[in-house]
Specification:
220 residues, Rossmann fold, 10-stranded mixed sheet, 3-stranded mixed sheet, 4 helices, elongated
C-alpha cells in the first residue's frame, strides 16, 4: 500500500506546503514501512511546532496532528523576530503580530538561534503585571530593552516613562513599585524614570521643563 493522501490538522501559521516541504517525501511511500516516529520527531524540530503526532489511516492515508507555538513577543536583533512564551524564537516578524511587545536585544549582531529567552520571559511577565495597574491604563509598557546581562528597562507606549529593573530581582522590584505607587499617583508630577534596581530604595526622576530631579524613597 502506497500513501496517497496526507491530512494535516492544527496548523494556523504554517501552510500545508511549508509543512510537507519541511517533512520531506510522504506520498508514494509505503504505508506500512513509513517511519511515523521519525516523521513526528522531524515535525517537532520546526521552530513553530510545539508537538506533533503522525498516524496511519488505512487504506492509504497518513494523518498529522500539530500543536503550533503561539507568538508572545517580538525580539529585535539586526531584524525583528517572533518569540513564544517559552522564549523560543520562531521566525522573522509578521505584520499581523506588530501589536506584540518588543524586546530589544543589546547585541544587534547576536544570532537568533543562540538566543536564550528564559529571563526575558520573566521580564515580559512583569511587564504584564505592570500593565494591569491603573497607573499604566492609558499608557502601557510595550518595549523591554535588555541592558547587558543583568538589567532590563521598560518604556511606555508614549515613550515618556522608563522603568529600570535588575533581571536578578524582578519580583522584588515589582513589590517595591507597589509600595511607592500611591505616592507616585498622588504626587501629580510627570515622572520620567523609575529605577527599581537598587536593593533598599526606589529612585524616581521627574520631568520639570528641561531639567530633572531625583527623589529617593526608602522601601524597607
Amino acid at each position: 500500500f502506497k500513501i496517497a493522501d496526507v491530512s494535516i490538522r492544527g496548523h494556523h501559521s504554517l501552510t500545508e506546503k511549508q509543512l510537507l516541504d519541511w517533512l520531506g517525501p510522504v506520498q508514494g511511500e509505503n504505508l506500512f514501512t513509513y517511519d511515523l516516529s521519525e516523521a513526528s520527531k522531524r515535525l517537532a524540530e520546526h521552530p513553530w511546532i510545539l508537538s506533533a503526532s503522525v498516524q496511519r489511516k488505512y487504506p492509504q492515508e497518513v494523518q498529522i496532528e500539530l500543536t503550533e507555538r503561539v507568538p508572545y513577543a517580538r525580539v529585535k536583533f539586526e531584524k525583528i523576530f517572533l518569540m513564544d512564551n517559552f522564549g523560543v524564537v520562531l521566525s522573522e516578524e509578521k505584520p499581523e503580530h506588530s501589536h506584540l511587545p518588543l524586546v530589544v536585544h543589546p547585541d544587534k549582531r547576536a544570532k537568533p538561534e543562540n538566543f536564550s529567552g528564559d529571563k526575558v520571559i520573566q521580564g515580559l511577565k512583569i511587564m504584564h503585571y505592570f500593565n494591569k495597574l491603573s497607573f499604566f491604563e492609558n499608557n502601557p509598557l510595550d518595549i523591554a530593552e535588555l541592558v547587558g546581562n543583568y538589567r532590563i528597562q521598560f518604556f511606555t507606549r508614549n515613550r515618556d516613562l522608563q522603568i529600570q529593573m535588575s533581571m536578578e530581582a524582578l519580583t522584588e522590584g515589582f513589590k517595591k513599585f507597589m509600595i511607592v505607587l500611591d505616592t507616585l499617583e498622588d504626587s501629580g508630577k510627570k515622572i520620567k524614570m523609575i529605577d527599581l534596581s537598587f536593593k533598599d530604595q526606589v529612585v524616581v526622576q521627574d520631568r520639570i521643563s528641561t531639567n530633572s530631579t531625583s527623589m529617593k524613597r526608602q522601601t524597607n
